[in-house]
Amino acid sequence: MATLLPPPKRQKVYNGIPEPEKIPVEQSPNVVVQFVSEDDGSALAPAVSLPANVSREDLQSLVNRLTSKADEPVPFQFHVALPAEAVTKESSRIVISKSIEADVLSHSSRAFSPEDILVVHCSPQSVFRVRPATRCSSSLSGHSSPILCASFSPTGNLLATGSGDTNARLWDLFTETPSHTLSGHKGWVLCVEWEALERKLATGGHDSHVRIWDPKTGKPLGDALRGHSKWITSLSWEPIHINPSAPRLASSSKDGTVKVWAITTRRLEYTLGGHTASVNVVRWGGGGLNGKGVLYTASSDRTVRIWDANGGKPLHTLKDHAHWVTTLSLNTDFVLRTGPFDHAGKLPSSDEEAQSRALERYNALVSSASELMITGSDDHTLFLWSLFPSRSDSTQPSEVAASNGGKLKPLARLTGHQRQVSHVAFSPDGRWAASAAWDNSVRLWEGRTGKFVATLRGHIGAVYRLTWSADSRLLVSASKDTTLKVWDLKTYKIKTDLPGHTDEVYCVDFVADKIVSGGRDRMVKIWKN
């Protein structure tokens, strides 16, 4: 009897379709990569040859190993600068978010090939990460007129808002409920400013008065500070690392003056009267020639003036703008505003400890770059300035001015906006600066050189305000189009769109993982993950 062969195997079918032909895996090319520091352009290690499909996370591990930081790894962001002929109006660099092969070699500009030596810029990121807000957790009513200003306290426990109903309000962020109503102004409350140790809150009104409040009780600390003849445009407290026990307060006004108040004695120390039109912004910087602080003022007389904070002596007058100077930002704004409080949440036990911790945070920021300033104007441009060199630089501004024929020159002129600049803000780490304008766009710049990075488009109305997350990875913009937008700095695209307001959004602020916004619809909205 012949042996029966087993029946032939049935061909495996995929839902009735024959098995597709296997696509051969393409071999990834090797590329030569030179890692350089974003800060000074120095090489972090010799050039290395890598497969182009190495992921961003593996690149991060490699850089930490090459720089001997494997024990305490630092997160990095990587980017490759586009050659001059490939730079577009939208971007001047390629951020590596997946791999060199996926992001750089496959880029639409076709500016790079596997034969090139790729210079990859490495920018260290903060070790903590802020979660992007995705939903509205609270809509708080209470104000009966549009909300004009909003500011988180330095610890992030309280929120202050000012409105056209002549009241400021305090809100508890743990319970997301109203805390106190601050009544006293006889006109719109135009600005609110927290002292960096959260002991006092200052408000400025359309009634030309400055008022000081105790945030714990919601009661005024004495009567109003009177002296200005027109409404208050901006407030700024003396930094904690200079004066922890009794910081002074500077107020700028439409009347063209800046007044510095001693809050403990409730007396006017001095008045700065050099401007010939409305002073739109005042900032109290922590630097200066002797480290005792300086006042920066921006005015509608087209000038920016710098003053010694001890006595009010004028130091510099910057006349480069061709129209009203409406916004001003320092790269130290975030550390001056939050004083001794960082992401760890540890509270100082005394004024001396608060001073030392605030000074430590300030010095850590200005050690690599001095205290920088960006000014924005209705002439559609911005200027980046370095007026007081870092302590490692022996060149004094007066010597620099002398070499320039007696005139201080800006580090860079930032052009590109098509309409008036409404707001400019440095990131907390000082590496980025963002500017908003009436041309519906947000532009991103390198914070230390002023080089253009990218244009963020998505709003369909003028962009009024910007704010950064504490880790400098997220940027939030508030617009006339009733939305907030959270921008991802890896892709320069919208990460989250936050609609919900029914009218223009005038103010926005970011603390921890919470965003607050307010506007013409009279609602305070809190957004979180």
TrEMBL record:
GO terms for biological process: ribosomal large subunit assembly. This is WD-repeat protein. It comes from Russula ochroleuca. One of its GO terms (cellular component) is nucleolus. Its main location: nucleus. WD repeats lie at residues 140-181, 182-223, 225-271, 272-317, 414-455, 456-497, 498-529. It comes from the Eukaryota. CDD domains: WD40. Keywords: Nucleus, Repeat, WD repeat. It is found in: Nucleus, Nucleolus. Transmembrane segments: none annotated. Gene3D superfamilies: YVTN repeat-like/Quinoprotein amine dehydrogenase. Pfam families: NLE, WD40. Residues 31-80 form the NLE domain.
